């Protein structure tokens, strides 16, 4: 039988395990994640990802960093819910501490800049003053045990208490969990139209879902 899962706020000490769990959880199944966390399954990529999680946690007072743990206290899942109060900049260089350090390859950096510029308008369009699940992943060895749903429902419940919408930006892999949490699709599929120089890169498709507010 699967062990009892608890949802608890992360401390700074949890972030290395969180980075490992999200890298392992996503694997290479989600092109956007691979672009956003380059080489995340290498030690250099993990170190860089960890630095960015730390920067994010320190600089986003409206974000709640959550972990899902087993009875033994092992971190098996990670989620970040943010109460959004203003639109995000579509300029990657304005939201990242150091683009050149995170994406040392110039083509990778330019590709990420374009992706970001095309993705953010979808995001800002789907999100008003709402609670947003910005990241969610469960370690592969612990998937299908309810951790993803519990991390999702933590935020949908908070949003309900605040009488605002809960919004999720999803990969196709996450959609079933969000449907199970009662969320409804509002953007079926992003249509990113990148420069021809990136034609051979994997296509990024994201889906937006929401619950509450006026849409039910
Ligand atoms: C998406 C993800 C977070 C779900 O986490 P999880 O802990 O495995 O999900 P849960 O066990 O809470 O599943 C809840 C429900 O979602 C559905 N579901 C989840 N994963 C599924 C899968 N692989 N296939 C079919 N249905 C699935 C099921 O209805 C499931 O309920 P059930 O097991 O009682 O049938 C996890 O698969 C993951 O980390 N994936 C990689 C990262 C990712 O894509 N994150 C989402 C980004 S938005």
UniProtKB/TrEMBL annotation:
Domain of life, per lineage: Eukaryota
InterPro entries with a match to the protein in the record: Acyl_CoA_acyltransferase, GNAT_dom, Trichothecene_AcTrans
N-acetyltransferase domain: residues covered: 83-207
Gene3D superfamilies: 3.40.630.30
Gene Ontology terms, MF aspect: acyltransferase activity, transferring groups other than amino-acyl groups
Pfam families the record matches: Acetyltransf_10
PANTHER family the record matches: GNAT FAMILY ACETYLTRANSFERASE, N-ACETYLTRANSFERASE DOMAIN-CONTAINING PROTEIN
Protein name (Swiss-Prot/TrEMBL): N-acetyltransferase domain-containing protein
Species annotation: Cyphellophora attinorum
